[in-house]
């Protein structure tokens, strides 16, 4: 039932390992679908090419949303949950049977959803806002996927209970697994909300329920829709800590602080789904302000805590290894040739400076007026979930391949380059989308020349330049993603086997010598970076509030 | 250690000076952000509205037709042009795939917009001012606008509403 | 050996069932229930506005 890993020493439950592998494979398949759709979308929105015809644009957009934002990430996260609750704890899978059930349901859901989209029966976009209605099989597919994922999440908790009862890891969960606990808690309420909204919607599409209130639908749906992204944030941060540990032997300089930050997520992060309803009729400003602020910004505080804790984990370890010169010697001498390290560090930078900075402003009740439904919104979330979560997951995979698939990374030279290609592409794409949105360019829109409409409107000519950047960034990101998929597929299916520690291309770092008793600043380089981030953030904030104040008055 | 349980006494380890400093700064900023939104509701001039009424497509359509009839001054490309008096209730309807009516307003005057949809969700996106609000069937969103600039403005629909979504564009004219 | 009583908050951190309860409940009350109640409380368009446009009944 177990093998003992000859590289890490962990006990690996072979039944868990199989399930981890299969979920990871499905994740890559989903990403491939999502990336192909992305390329088609980039070449359509850039109206110089305007590749797809109108109905296929919305179809591809739906396909991209479901596969890139839901399937790719959730399959990967389920693999991660199993890893964190078995291998990391030297423990067993509580019930492999349920793991298989979860996988079958998720694969079935994946197939049904993609089939209905591709056959034109679900041109409703990922949000499927009622009264827009898709074919019942589409909703059924989503429900099956969500139920499967929920089973996987419960299995994670069951594994933890088993490990605790069988005392396989001592008293306190490792930080990586603790982060996954926070992610899994958010997943429970996410998927439960999914059931609450999709089951009546399915019945409505079958004609059993007469109508669905548009306001109720959107409110409840975003309890699923945004919370699912908060799972991704939490999982990403857990992967950041994992990356810091594997690549430089770093760990949080204060476990209590990091753990409380995860708890702040659990308490405050889910109510922020309200930021999708800030300029909607219905809920009062009191509800909007209280909820969008993540309960008075407790969860933003948590993000800022991790923003310090993760780089300082790297810095502290590096300083103890001797890289103490100046503010950034530790960073210059970090293992940039390790694609897992570069992916994780780029993920931190992009998530923080692009995703984070734009996110808070978008989510403030009044500034939302100048961004809602413009291209700035997808620009923001390319920074968070693509440049942040996806890139971090890509980095983690470079350890997953030798350790769980027991294969060497083929095309290793390409692998070293890949995080940079993808990261650069996404950064350029995200920023250009955000700027286009600032000029008023709408999202989810087929033709901004409004052909066929009773009037027309021409956006500021400066947008032409940013459309070119958009296309360049998008194509580069697609190339970066395809590079990663190619490397993963060839390595896993055709790569040389890993026969022992000598075959590891990526070092697993030795833990650094213990810290000398503190004399104050443990991570001055990180503090500088975070203060810089705060400066950029405040400037961006003030600019946007200034722009808002220049608008027409409205109340 | 991220993959290993934390060391003995981890809960009692003192927080490093720089981490403490950063957390304090972040906490202060976070609280300021929250209260900023509240204060802006009192002193700021751009706020999403407090007022929403329940309605139905039939009722709202009837009200809009009556509104158009009362203040119509002409027509543009088949869409009625309406010039309502300042401080009155202005009705704007979104439906697949147009905005009705075209509105003629005066700069510096207040107008109580009632915006609703007859079918699906639509997005009210006023360009080039770039103010964006959602439009729902069954809900009358009452937004009191005061145009602070004159000229011709477009109402772009920025919420997907079917195949003709990109043809949905309206107009507001603001006179000096 | 010094016996240290486990602090209350450390126990909270380690009890993931309690955290699950906390996370789900805060979200359900503050976002879902409060939000749905607000939608349910909305009133129809006031009679004066309708009268002004549609004339007397």
Provide a short characterization of the protein structure.
The complex is a heterotrimer of chains A (555), B (176) and C (57). With 555 residues, chain A is mostly helical. Chain A has helices at residues 14-45, 54-85, 96-118, 136-165, 175-205, 214-248, 255-268, 285-292, 294-320, 329-332, 339-362, 376-403, 412-438, 463-494, 524-549, and strands spanning 2-4, 11-13, 553-554.
Write the layout of secondary structure elements.
The complex is a heterotrimer of chains A (555), B (176) and C (57).
Chain A: E1 2-4, E2 11-13, H1 14-45, H2 54-85, H3 96-118, H4 136-165, H5 175-205, H6 214-248, H7 255-268, H8 285-292, H9 294-320, H10 329-332, H11 339-362, H12 376-403, H13 412-438, H14 463-494, H15 524-549, E3 553-554
Chain B: H1 17-43, E1 51-54, H2 57-71, E2 72-76, E3 79-82, E4 89-95, E5 98-100, E6 102-106, E7 111-117, E8 122-127, E9 131-135, E10 139-146, E11 151-157, E12 169-175
Chain C: H1 8-14, H2 16-40, E1 43-44, H3 47-54
Describe the structure.
- The complex is a heterotrimer of chains A (555), B (176) and C (57).
- Chain A is built from 15 helices and 3 strands.
- Chain A has helices spanning 14-45, 54-85, 96-118, 136-165, 175-205, 214-248, 255-268, 285-292, 294-320, 329-332, 339-362, 376-403, 412-438, 463-494, 524-549; strands at residues 2-4, 11-13, 553-554.
- Chain A has a two-stranded antiparallel ribbon.
- Chain A starts with a strand and ends with a strand.
- The model of chain A has no long low-confidence stretch (mean pLDDT 95).
- Chain B is of the alpha+beta class and 176 residues long.
- Chain B is built from 2 helices and 12 strands.
- In chain B, the strands form 2 sheets. A 7-stranded mixed β-sheet of chain B has the order 2-3-6-12-11-8-9. In chain B, strands 1-10-7-4-5 form a 5-stranded mixed β-sheet, with helices on one face.
- Chain B is elongated.
- The termini of chain B are far apart.
- The mean pLDDT of chain B is 95.
- Chain C has 57 residues and is mainly alpha-helical.
- Helices cover 70% and strands 4% of the residues of chain C.
- The radius of gyration of chain C is 25 Å and the shape is rod-shaped.
- The chains are: A mainly alpha (555), B alpha+beta (176), C mainly alpha (57).
- Chains A and B meet through helix 2, helix 6, helix 7, helix 8 and helix 9 of A and helix 1, strand 8, strand 9, strand 10 and strand 11 of B.
């Amino acid at each position: 039932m177990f093998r003992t890993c000859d590289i890490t020493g962990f006990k690996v439950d072979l039944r868990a390992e199989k399930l981890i592998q299969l979920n990871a494979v499905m994740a890559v398949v989903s990403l491939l679908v999502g990336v192909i759709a992305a390329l088609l979308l980039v070449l359509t929105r850039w109206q110089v090419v305007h590749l797809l015809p109108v109905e296929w644009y919305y179809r591809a957009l739906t396909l991209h949303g479901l596969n890139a934002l839901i399937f790719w990430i959730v399959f990967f996260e389920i693999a991660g949950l199993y890893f964190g609750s078995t291998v990391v704890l030297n423990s067993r899978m509580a019930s492999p049977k349920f793991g298989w059930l979860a996988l079958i349901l998720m694969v079935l859901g994946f197939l049904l959803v993609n089939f209905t989209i591709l056959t034109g029966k679900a041109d409703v976009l990922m949000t499927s806002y009622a009264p827009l209605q898709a074919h019942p099989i589409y909703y059924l597919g989503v429900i099956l996927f969500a139920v499967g994922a929920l089973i996987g999440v419960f299995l994670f908790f069951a594994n933890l209970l088993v490990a605790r009862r069988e005392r396989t890891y001592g008293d306190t969960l490792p930080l990586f697994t603790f982060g996954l606990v926070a992610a899994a808690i958010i997943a429970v309420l996410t998927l439960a909300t999914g059931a609450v909204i999709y089951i009546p919607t399915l019945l409505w599409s079958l004609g059993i329920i007469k109508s669905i209130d548009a306001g109720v639908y959107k409110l409840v749906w975003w309890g699923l829709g945004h919370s699912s992204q908060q799972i991704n944030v939490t999982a990403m941060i857990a992967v950041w800590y994992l990356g810091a540990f594997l690549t430089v032997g770093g760990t949080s300089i204060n476990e209590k602080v990091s753990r409380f930050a995860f708890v702040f997520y659990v308490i405050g992060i889910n109510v922020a789904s309200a930021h999708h309803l800030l300029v909607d009729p219905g809920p009062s400003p009191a509800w909007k302000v209280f909820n969008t602020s993540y309960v008075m910004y407790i969860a933003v505080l948590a993000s800022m805590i991790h923003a310090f804790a993760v780089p300082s984990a790297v810095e502290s370890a590096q300083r103890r290894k001797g890289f103490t010169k100046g503010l950034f010697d530790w960073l210059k001498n970090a293992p940039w040739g390790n694609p897992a390290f570069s992916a994780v560090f780029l993920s931190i930078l992009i998530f923080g400076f692009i995703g984070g900075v734009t996110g808070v402003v978008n989510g403030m009740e009044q500034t939302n007026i100048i961004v809602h439904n413009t291209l700035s919104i997808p620009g923001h979330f390319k920074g968070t979930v693509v440049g942040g979560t996806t890139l971090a997951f890509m980095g983690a995979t470079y350890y997953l391949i030798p350790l769980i698939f027991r294969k060497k990374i083929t095309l290793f030279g390409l692998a070293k380059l890949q995080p940079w290609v993808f990261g650069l592409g996404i950064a350029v794409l995200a920023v250009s989308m955000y700027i286009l949105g600032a000029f008023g360019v709408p999202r989810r829109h087929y033709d901004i020349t409004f052909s066929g409409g009773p009037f027309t409107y021409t956006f500021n000519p400066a947008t032409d330049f940013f459309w070119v950047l958009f296309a360049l960034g998008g194509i580069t990101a697609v190339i970066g993603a395809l590079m990663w998929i190619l490397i993963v597929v060839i390595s896993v299916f055709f790569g040389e086997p890993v026969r022992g520690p000598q075959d590891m291309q990526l070092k697993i770092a030795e833990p650094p010598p213990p810290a000398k008793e503190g004399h104050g600043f443990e991570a001055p380089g990180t503090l500088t970076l975070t203060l810089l981030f705060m400066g950029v953030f405040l400037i961006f904030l003030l600019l946007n509030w200034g722009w808002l104040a220049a608008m027409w008055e409205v109340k | 250690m991220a993959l290993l349980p934390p060391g003995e006494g981890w809960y009692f380890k003192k927080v490093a000076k720089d981490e403490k400093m950063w957390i304090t700064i972040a906490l202060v900023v976070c609280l300021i952000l929250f209260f900023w939104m509240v204060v802006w509701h009192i002193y700021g001039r751009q706020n999403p509205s407090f007022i929403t009424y329940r309605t139905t497509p039939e009722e709202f359509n009837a009200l809009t037709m009556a509104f158009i009839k009362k203040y119509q001054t002409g027509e543009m490309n088949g869409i009625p042009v309406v010039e309502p008096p300042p401080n009155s209730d202005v009705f704007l309807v979104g439906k697949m795939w147009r905005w009705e009516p075209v509105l003629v307003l005066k700069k510096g005057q207040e107008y109580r917009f009632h915006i609703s949809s007859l079918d699906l969700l639509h997005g009210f996106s006023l360009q080039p001012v770039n103010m964006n609000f959602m439009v729902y069937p069954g809900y009358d969103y009452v937004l009191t606008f005061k145009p602070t600039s004159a000229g011709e403005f477009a109402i772009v629909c920025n919420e997907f509403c079917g195949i003709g979504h990109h043809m949905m564009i309206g107009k507001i004219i603001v006179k000096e | 050996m010094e016996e240290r009583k486990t602090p209350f908050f450390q126990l909270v951190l380690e009890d993931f069932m309690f955290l699950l309860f906390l996370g789900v409940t805060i979200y359900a009350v503050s976002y879902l229930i409060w939000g749905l109640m607000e939608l349910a409380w909305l009133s129809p368009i006031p009679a004066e506005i309708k009268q002004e446009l549609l004339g007397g009944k």
